[in-house]
Design a protein that fits this description.
single chain, mainly beta, Immunoglobulin-like, nine-stranded mixed sheet
């Protein structure tokens, strides 16, 4: 009877479909493996400034403004490993190009990017205090290595610059001891800076003990010499609030038409001299901090201006005593105390003793009956 033939045909058709499916699946799997072994699967590595814990939209490109590392501090970077062509293997990270005093830490040294996507991990660079600085950047190299196949190793790298700095703005001398009704000076100085083009800073003090009377800018930043502009709304003495505001910017392109300030090694540069006077009517001895706040340093890094240069700030202090003396006398750091007579020599020795021992030597004279 003919009724059995269609069933056999259906079985034959089903068997053929199954066979084709198996062969097709095998061919498909083969082609996928061939794609890996043929080298089309790959990965790349890049470095950005930021944290992997923050959204990728907050990550910044590494450049002269974002990759400055101040000594004694750390900076966070993001290492991004992206996969292409079906890559789905483990990637090992390493770093080279550091110098003595510059250390690093990966959040993860082995990552596995998502196929068709990426994997990010954190990289922290830490500069020890006093690390060697230079004008040019150090080139740091992140290397990523993976075994694409059992016999093939692929290495990718990302080289990025890091500018090490130890810029410090400070007062000199850091501590002073003066008697009431004495005129004295402190110097606002800076060290370890490259191509300084502008600055702004506020010096604060206790008006019950001292008042400011005069500010003298350095030659480069003094508008009288034609190189700089000092906005009058910034440069003010306010003995009501106890503040001296100082600011100046060089006119013209750094080095080419303006004398940009570079201070290296043990050198120090005087930005300004501030003259103060201890109050004549002081009825008690006391100390006043000379604080440095609202400071902004601008420097040229290549053809880019860095408006907020990372830096350290070190203020000072003044101890005002009740020892009465002759007419107001100028006490200035670095000058021979003998020029001012035995009284000033005694003040200088007292400052040294105060700094060395922390003991105040000025006391109210006893009255003899």
């Amino acid at each position: 009877m003919q009724t059995g033939k269609p069933k056999r045909r259906r079985r034959t058709i089903i068997a053929v479909i199954i066979l084709v499916a198996i062969i097709g699946g095998g061919v498909g799997a083969y082609f996928l493996r061939t794609a890996v072994t043929s080298g089309t699967a790959d990965f790349g590595v890049s470095v950005l400034v930021g944290s992997p814990d923050r959204p990728s939209g907050t990550w910044l490109k590494v450049d002269q403004t974002t990759s400055i590392l101040l000594d004694g501090t750390s900076k966070s970077f993001v290492v991004v490993v992206n996969a292409t062509g079906g890559f789905n293997e483990f990637v090992k990270l390493s770093l080279s190009g550091t110098i003595t005093g510059l250390t690093f830490h990966f959040n993860q040294t082995v990552v596995r990017p998502v196929t068709g996507g990426y994997y990010s991990t954190g990289l922290s660079l830490t500069a020890a205090p006093g690390v060697l600085t230079r004008m040019d950047p150090y080139k740091i190299n992140v290397t990523a290595t993976s075994n694409v196949t059992a016999t093939s190793t692929v290495t990718r790298s990302a080289v990025f610059p890091v500018w090490l700095r130890s810029t410090t703005i400070f007062l000199d001398p850091p501590t002073m001891t003066v008697s009431n009704n004495n005129v004295f000076q402190v110097c606002l100085k800076i060290r370890n800076v490259y191509n300084l083009t502008a600055f702004q800073i506020t010096i604060g003090y206790n008006t019950s003990l001292v008042n400011a009377t005069k500010v003298s800018l350095s030659r480069e930043f003094d508008p009288a010499y034609g190189f700089a502009y000092a906005p009058p709304e910034i440069n003010k003495i306010n003995n009501t609030l106890g503040q001296v505001s100082i600011g100046s910017t060089l006119i013209g392109e750094c080095v080419i038409s303006a004398p940009c300030v570079t201070v290296e090694g043990a050198q120090e540069y005087v930005i300004a001299n501030v003259t103060l006077v201890s109050n004549v009517n002081v009825t008690f001895k006391g100390d006043t901090a000379l604080s440095l706040t609202n400071e902004i340093l601008t420097a040229a890094n290549g053809d880019v201006l860095i408006a907020y240069l990372p830096h350290h700030t070190v203020g000072g202090s003044v101890s005002v005593t009740l020892v009465s003396g002759p007419d107001p006398t100028i006490i200035k750091a670095g000058l021979n105390p003998a020029w001012y007579g035995s009284l000033i020599l005694g003040v200088a020795v007292a400052v040294l003793l105060t700094v060395g021992s922390g003991v105040r030597v000025f006391r109210r004279p006893r009255k003899h009956r």
